[in-house]
Specification:
With 281 residues, this protein is of the alpha+beta class. The protein folds into three domains: 47 residues, Orthogonal Bundle (Helicase, Ruva Protein, domain 3); 164 residues, Tetrahydropterin Synthase, Chain A, CATH 3.30.479; 41 residues, GTP Cyclohydrolase I, Chain A, domain 1 (Orthogonal Bundle), CATH 1.10.286. The strands form four sheets. The chain has a three-stranded antiparallel β-sheet with strand order 1-2-5. Strand 1 and strand 2 form a beta hairpin. Helix 9 packs across helix 10.
Length: 281
């Protein structure tokens, strides 16, 4: 039997939500491998690992800036939420998001900022605050023939989720289209889709999910004659949960995002989206 450490059990519990004894058994069954333990728990129906795997304990703040057809998300990481919600920290991440809109993301670390460069300023900020501070993820969307919209979710005095949405096939001056773009940005923040459509889900992810659902269905004692139909139904559920265009709109659960877009015309589509949350990869 492998030597299962309490710290590994605690980490597995944090990312899967499974019970302590189940986590310990999963680690034993997987010879202490964390990723293998996550899959073991999923196959037993004991965890929501597909949604929660990959989360980390980093703190920080996020800001979103949209100007015309350009939008940016900027993330600044820190060790504690106390530092992350400080006025100086929040102001810095806001300025970095604006800088990304103004200058783009190429060589952003070496761009002039506050009398030095971004890289040098972040080092100075870390020294001032007494914490490990770093520039995190930066996302930039630009369009000349559509709508870029964004949303920042604020919690405990700091931005914790940032979203950008690129809506195409619409008139950028159409107020209804702009409202829908913003509604979808709000939806993405809440529903956390992983992919735009089922065509964007990597083949290996689909194969892995199908294998997990097949084993789960067999462990539940589902009838063999109905197995193919059951697995297909569960795969459709996976796509509806994971893919933005198939998700139920959070404000009108009977309407999918695709149906919401259809109200703007046959050509309206979400071309891409980005969602960044503090503490998640």
């Amino acid at each position: 039997m492998p030597d299962v450490k309490a710290a590994d059990v605690a980490e597995l519990r944090k990312v899967t939500g499974a019970g302590m004894m189940d986590c310990k058994k999963a680690l034993v069954e997987s010879n202490g491998d964390l990723e293998g333990a996550k899959e073991w728990l999923r196959k037993k129906g004991l965890a929501g690992a597909s949604k929660r795997a990959g989360r980390v304990a980093d703190q920080g703040a996020i800001d979103v800036v949209v100007a015309g057809g350009t939008g940016a998300i900027a993330e600044l990481t820190a060790e504690t939420d106390f530092v992350a919600k400080s006025e100086n920290f929040s102001a810095t991440v806001s300025e970095l998001a604006q800088l990304a809109v103004d200058l783009g993301t190429e060589d952003l670390l070496e761009s002039p900022f506050q009398g030095s460069t971004v890289s040098e300023f972040v080092v100075q900020l870390a020294s001032t605050l007494g914490e490990n501070v770093a520039l995190g993820r930066i996302v930039l969307f630009e369009t000349s023939d559509g709508i870029v919209d964004g949303y920042r979710h604020v919690q405990n005095g700091r931005g914790t989720i940032g979203v950008l949405v690129d809506l195409g096939g619409v008139d950028p001056t159409d107020l209804k289209a702009r409202d829908v773009a913003h509604d979808i940005a709000l939806h993405v923040a809440s529903a956390a889709p992983r992919y735009l459509s089922r065509d964007d889900v990597p083949e290996d992810v689909v194969a892995k999910e199908r294998a997990v659902l097949e084993e789960l269905s067999r462990n539940e004692g589902k009838p063999e004659a109905a197995m193919a139909k059951i697995i297909e139904g569960r795969m459709n559920g996976f796509f509806k949960d994971s893919c933005l265009l198939e998700q139920a709109f959070v404000r009108e659960p009977k309407t999918t995002i695709t149906q919401l877009l259809q109200g703007l015309g046959a050509n309206a589509t979400v071309r891409r989206f980005a969602r960044i949350k503090i503490g998640e990869e």
